[in-house]
């Protein structure tokens, strides 16, 4: 597939998959492209097919412009990257790490992939000793990479906040010694935020991810305490306070998850926007089809309508000067990461790892507890090379379905864990996820294109 | 052009000339974190 075209918000969008070029075209060119196979332009067939709709003169003009773009390698271009990755024998370095600070949680969210925080194992908190070894491990294995990311994750990491602080202070010192720029992110359910830890978080974390599902009715139904009671009214003021402390250059995300219970998640995004949050993410839940909250193929129509509605509302608000960012629509059309990154996938298992409270290393937090994916331990100081290579080679060129997909350079092959969980193979994408991803990329492009019109 | 307005002339292809330093942030797509499409990321080597 060399081009992808679609209509949205009165725009006809054409994406040239391999060059990344994006064109807004009129109806004539949009229709002509149905008759262009690869880069073969046959005027006679086009005029025969569209003569009833457009004048011969207009069709010829359209064809001429299409041919110009083909010549300028902005339409129907070939993939020039495949050889590049096939010949890439460079070593991978670990530059990102998820530290599972607590395999325990004070909530019982109904969609939790981590099985109430313990990842199907025993409830346990990470010790400073393990955290220290994990920092040593990532610094040692980061080779020439200067930027290292450490995610403080759980379960609920604030259940083990003293150790969070100890690990961070250690990491800051070691970062200086080894000339590494270590960036910290904490993901929290916000229940345990207080003045003291908020101040520390604000001071030390590059990013803070705060979980709330949107409307009170949704959050209180899904994100519940052990006794089943809701938490919305407890966490909202805390999240607001934390966000108010984040000044320029200090990131935050107010994030939630949508499920089958709230397929109308547009309302949840709006509820968060109405609270004044400017950085919002509401993401699709990933659960097996037989789970009552799972998203299924038959839900896609409603989900797409929500994304469409959100796109339109965001365009409107941005023009009115009261816009907000929706994480999945943040695409930098003229920049973003280079092609080397786009074809190398998420990095799980070879650039990114997760560490459990016991010090076990897995390709990412989603693989934790799956013994066959255990890469090693922080005490050993290195990881299983064979498994690492499997993940390194789990890129789009080894995923046949991705090679037929126009969105491959926007998505880079999907989530390896989702692929494995649904298809028992990291190379076979999770289909429902693919469909949503493609829809979001379409919306993100239209959002940018509409705002460029101004 | 009369019928076509190009809003991106091929930043992806142009990026082949970048060094591929791999210093950019990790991109995780799973729903428990802020699941990023890789295209969300910022380049560290502009």
Automatic annotation (TrEMBL), chain A:
<dbReference type="GO" id="GO:0051539">
    <property type="term" value="F:4 iron, 4 sulfur cluster binding"/>
</dbReference>
<dbReference type="Pfam" id="PF13186">
    <property type="entry name" value="SPASM"/>
</dbReference>
<dbReference type="Pfam" id="PF04055">
    <property type="entry name" value="Radical_SAM"/>
</dbReference>
<dbReference type="InterPro" id="IPR000385">
    <property type="entry name" value="MoaA_NifB_PqqE_Fe-S-bd_CS"/>
</dbReference>
<keyword id="KW-0949">S-adenosyl-L-methionine</keyword>
<dbReference type="InterPro" id="IPR024025">
    <property type="entry name" value="SCIFF_rSAM_maturase"/>
</dbReference>
<dbReference type="InterPro" id="IPR023867">
    <property type="entry name" value="Sulphatase_maturase_rSAM"/>
</dbReference>
<dbReference type="InterPro" id="IPR013785">
    <property type="entry name" value="Aldolase_TIM"/>
</dbReference>
<keyword id="KW-0411">Iron-sulfur</keyword>
<dbReference type="GO" id="GO:0016491">
    <property type="term" value="F:oxidoreductase activity"/>
</dbReference>
<dbReference type="InterPro" id="IPR058240">
    <property type="entry name" value="rSAM_sf"/>
</dbReference>
<dbReference type="InterPro" id="IPR047602">
    <property type="entry name" value="SPASM_CteB-like"/>
</dbReference>
<dbReference type="GO" id="GO:0046872">
    <property type="term" value="F:metal ion binding"/>
</dbReference>
<dbReference type="InterPro" id="IPR007197">
    <property type="entry name" value="rSAM"/>
</dbReference>
<feature type="domain" description="Radical SAM core">
    <location>
        <begin position="91"/>
        <end position="334"/>
    </location>
</feature>
<protein>
    <submittedName>
        <fullName>Radical SAM protein</fullName>
    </submittedName>
</protein>
<keyword id="KW-0479">Metal-binding</keyword>
<keyword id="KW-0408">Iron</keyword>
<keyword id="KW-0004">4Fe-4S</keyword>
<dbReference type="InterPro" id="IPR023885">
    <property type="entry name" value="4Fe4S-binding_SPASM_dom"/>
</dbReference>
From TrEMBL, chain B:
<protein>
    <submittedName>
        <fullName>RSAM-modified six-cysteine peptide SCIFF</fullName>
    </submittedName>
</protein>
<dbReference type="Pfam" id="PF13165">
    <property type="entry name" value="SCIFF"/>
</dbReference>
<dbReference type="InterPro" id="IPR023975">
    <property type="entry name" value="Six-Cys_pep_SCIFF"/>
</dbReference>
